């Protein structure tokens, strides 16, 4: 009986374990972010990586969160939290027009899990080439 109870506790404990958070990347490209819109879930992380030759930042439009000023090749990670401001820009670099969105409330417009699958089988027949020899 004790053995069955122990197995049940282990089984229920594995069901209650939290799912592993995903990490999303945003590259700072100097003139903007790539991608400029991401679709994480609450609890996921976003790694900002400065791939430009200039210092850049990502700051919430209400300034509630910030990456700080990242030097070239610098990076930092933020955690996506319920209620966080989703829009951000490079507010620490004078004259920058870079903007982005961390959209944790919408589904991505594409099924990214199936992105590597072949898109379509050859299921159409091309129109025949018109015969130009007949009048």
Keywords, separated by commas or semicolons:
135 residues; alpha/beta; Immunoglobulin-like; 4-stranded mixed sheet; signal; Cupredoxin; Plastocyanin
Give a brief description:
This protein is of the alpha/beta class.
Tell me which CATH architecture of one domain applies here: Sandwich
How does the overall form come out from the CA principal axes?
A: elongated
Supply the number of helical segments: 1
Count all strands and give the number.
8
Please give the oligomerization state of what you see.
Answer: single chain
Q: CATH superfamily name of one domain?
A: Cupredoxins -  blue copper proteins
CATH class group of one domain = Mainly Beta
State the low-pLDDT regions, or none.
5-17
Q: What radius of gyration results from the CA coordinates?
A: 24 Å
What sequence of helices (H) and strands (E) makes up the elements?
HEEEEEEEE
Q: How are strands sequenced across the largest beta sheet?
A: 2-1-4-6
CATH topology of one domain: Immunoglobulin-like
Structural class: alpha/beta
Q: How can the largest sheet be summarized? A: 4 strands, mixed
How much of the sequence lies in strands comes to 15-25%
Helix content: 10-25%
Distance separating the two termini:
91 Å
| Mean pLDDT over the full residue set | 82
